Amino acid sequence: MQTTTAQAAYPIGTPGKPWDEAEIAAWRARQVKQRDYAQDVLSAINALRDTFDVTSYGALDYAAEHYPLFAVRTRSWDDALPTMLVTGGVHGYETSGVHGALQFLREHGGDYQGRANLLVVPCVSPWAYERIHRWNPDAIDPNRNFREGSASGEAAALVALLAPLRGRVLMHIDLHETTDTDESEFRPALAARDGKVYEPGEVPDGFYLVDDTENLQPAFQQAVIEAVAKVTHIAPPDAKGEIIGSAQIAPGVIAYSLRQLGLCAGITQARYTTTTEVYPDSPRATPQQCNDAQVAAVRAAIDYALAHG
């Protein structure tokens, strides 16, 4: 495919020219609500109120739509205990991140009573969750904007929630997916939005992790990979030894500069950080298996952090 043809194939924008407000509005008008945040997520969070503290950390208002934001915390929070942070749904279309976080709380949240403080934010981006999309309604990717003064309301709200805990979180795991639509929709849209050439990539078949180039923790990442490998398959590198364009530094592990890129896992400067990437479109994985993989990753991450401090 020719690069100019690839970009022109996206239905919005002019090749070589970044989107203006009219084009963002045209893109937004194409986004259709496909599922319900209140029904799917808020109801599941409310069901946890008997055993956890559920706290509001803000709300997002987009046109006539109102989205309250909630975090789930250990009820008997103890500042003397290590704090473990789990975030999901930074990208709304990455379904197992949301439902894996909720499943972890239901099935295993009580396992850490008296051993750790848990703080879980199951769905950072509710508008995008409903539309099965990566961006917010302003065509902004929250996961490049986790910094002070963020233009993303989703990112700004989470940064504010976590500001008092900066330097006090031992482990932060951010739950994501890499899907076939990354190549069929989201990366072409990104190129069109920014007026750049879309260069096709390869979607890895399997689970992988993203470490922090400024704080590599290979043994921690390996512990998570080993736990997830019991649930689903780990992504192999491509012919270049890469996963989504980055060098594999260990089986199923690549690394990004988390804080420089404004990624969610870099917010708190935790000692142990990782971003999970589940592949839900694999013929070898079911939706439940994807949720189970996220749960296995969370448990392994917390257990490793507790064992190694």
UniProtKB/TrEMBL annotation:
Record keywords, A-Z: Hydrolase, Metal-binding, Zinc
A Pfam family it matches: AstE_AspA_cat
Signal peptide feature range: none
Domain Peptidase M14 residues, every copy: 33-309
Keyword Plastid: no
Annotated family: Belongs to the peptidase M14 family.
Record protein name field: M14 family metallocarboxypeptidase
Species of the source: Luteibacter flocculans
